[in-house]
Structure formats: C-alpha cells, structure tokens
Amino acid sequence: MKVLVTGGAGYIGSTVCSALKDGGHTPVILDSLVTGQEVFTQGHIFYKGDIADQELVTRVLNEHKDIRLVVHCAALIVVPESMEKPYEYYRENVSKSIELFKSLVDHKIEGVVFSSSASIYDVVERFKVSEASPLKPQSPYARTKYMMEMVLRDFASAYGMKAIALRYFNPIGADPKLRSGIHVREPSHVVGKLVDCARGKIKKFEVTGVNWPTRDGSGIRDYIHVWDLARAHVAALENFADVFASSEHAGADNYQVINLGTGHGITVKELLTAFERVFGATLNKGEAPPRPGDNAGSYASCEKAAALLGWHAEKTIEDGIRDALRWGAMRHSVLGYD
Questions:
Q1: Which of 56, 100, 113, 265 is 20 to 30 Å apart from 315, CA to CA?
Q2: Contacts of 299 (CB under 8 A, 6+ apart)
Q3: Domain total of the chain
Q4: Residue 185 is part of which domain span?
Q5: pTM for this structure?
C-alpha cells in the first residue's frame, strides 16, 4: 500500500513512516520542513511543500495514482505557544487543512486518518475518557483539533470520503531503531524536558501544576510509546474498510473516532519517579504553576481501538523512557544542533 503522510518529517509522522515501511508499505511524505527535519525523510519518497498548495498536492497525487489513503499529521502542536500565537495555529492547523481536504476530495481519495488529540476532552470524574466522553478543548491548539474533527466529519458526510480521527494521548519515547525522535531544540513535553535535565541541558525539571484533584496533586496523563502510536496508524490503514463495516461501532457519516492510549493513568510525579529509576539517578527538580492551557488531564478507554483495529499498546512507560534517553544521547548530533 502507498500512503501519503503529511507532516511525515515530524516526530510522530516520521515514526508512522518507519512503521509503514517496516510493514511492507510505501509512505510518500509531504512536509514543509517548517518544524520537521529533512533527515527524517531519508529513504522515503519526499516532497517539500505546504499542504495548502493545491498545485503541489495535485502533482503528488498525479505522480502516485495508487495512493488511496492519507495520514494527516501536519500541524503546530505546542499548547503554550498556541496561547501566544492563536492566529498561526488556526491558519496552519485549520485553514490549511481545509485546503488539503478539498484537494483530496477533488482527487477522489478514499479516506483520511487524522492526527487528533485527547486535549479536546473535558476533565471527567476519575479521569478516564471514552470516545463518547464530553469535549471541552481549553487551548487554541486543542480547539484547532476539535475544529478539524468537525470539518473532517462534514467533508466525509458531504463528499463520501471516509475519515478516522485518532485521538492521541501523550506520546513518549522514540523509534526503537533510533531513526527518528523528538526533534525540537528545546522540547516542551514532559519526557523531553526530563531527558534534557538528565543530560544537563536544563538545570531543573519542574512539575507544572501540583494542586490538581489527582492522587498526588500533579496532572494525570496516559503516556503512550510513539512506536505503539505509529503501529496504530498502520492498523487503521490496513483495516480501514473494516472499521466502517463494524455494526457494533457503526460510524456516523463515514466518520470514526478512536482513542489511542495505554488505558492507564500516570501522574507527572509518578512519571518522574519512573524516569529516575530508569535513569539511575535523581534529578534536580521543583514545582511550578500550571502552564497556560493545562488541565488536570485524562487517560484513555481503549476498547474501541482493540475492537476495530485489533490494536493495543505493547510497550511500557519504562520502554518509552529508555528509548527517549537513547535518542536524547544522539539527537543533537543527528540533527546538527550545537
């Protein structure tokens, strides 16, 4: 199977491409490299450009007429940054995605697997959320994901193109073969910061938010290894038609939503303890107020992913920490950072 992957030079997109290739499929990457890394495209078919460039998308699809499914990962993804730059987030994540979807409809693409986010969920009692749980996106980033789900559902209903929205929880780790991983100079997510602290890149790791109504006051998350996340995309593509044939989980208007997590809630303080155990040393650490856009968090009900995709997370949180540390030891040299 040949699959177009937008944002295929990013952290998750590049790992999806590796999983596709390992599974015998051919990813075709479309990435502007505004945040992605060209080194992650090596060994793959790659087009540099914007997803809203309809002429370019047309050229890609005309040159690869056997593409029938698309994985859409291209997006800006930093929650605090989205609070400071909402225009950029709505332009990049919403406006440009609409143009991409129009191009896909024009070329009669069969379906889209969309990178959505668990950040669109409201905080619920006991923190476990299913696909039917209430939604309340609380940052511009989260709202762009919510909006794109609505747009994609409307496109699927009106134009006959099917779509699966995969709601990611909290990716950690790196490709186990170390072909790619976190690529930004200063990671904003928790494990990236822990690795930078362990390697002396930052002086102190801060637990941001310690007064949430959780068992230890820190936020609760569902930390899923990025390789498990990538495998889920391959499963969604390989089982795409069957997802919409299921009577038990019938999707309305050619549209399905599926959570991707481990099914286990881990607090930030518990993650910190696990990290120190794997790393073999304590870190310099402290506490700080929540970041803009933060909330108490949630973790996934994963029954639907098991039923429709035959998928469940296999790697442990310790696996994710080990792979993050391994990648952290080589990230700057691979990416050419000082």
A1: 113
A2: 127, 128, 129, 169, 220, 221, 222, 261, 262, 263, 264, 265, 266
A3: 1
A4: 1-338
A5: 0.96
Report the alpha-carbon angle 204-210-213, nearest 5.
155
Active site residue 47: no
Are the C-beta atoms of 112 and 90 separated by less than 8 Å?
Answer: no
Return the bridge partners of 259, or none.
Answer: 167
Please give the Cα distance from 320 to 288 (Å, whole number): 25
* Catalytic hit among 11, 47, 141, 223: 141
Could you tell me what percentage of the chain is helix, strand and coil, using 3-state DSSP and rounding each to the nearest 5?
40, 20, 40
Tell me, what CATH number does 178's domain have? 3.40.50.720
CB 144 within 8 A of CB 102: no
The partner residues of 121 in beta bridges, in order of sequence, read: 135
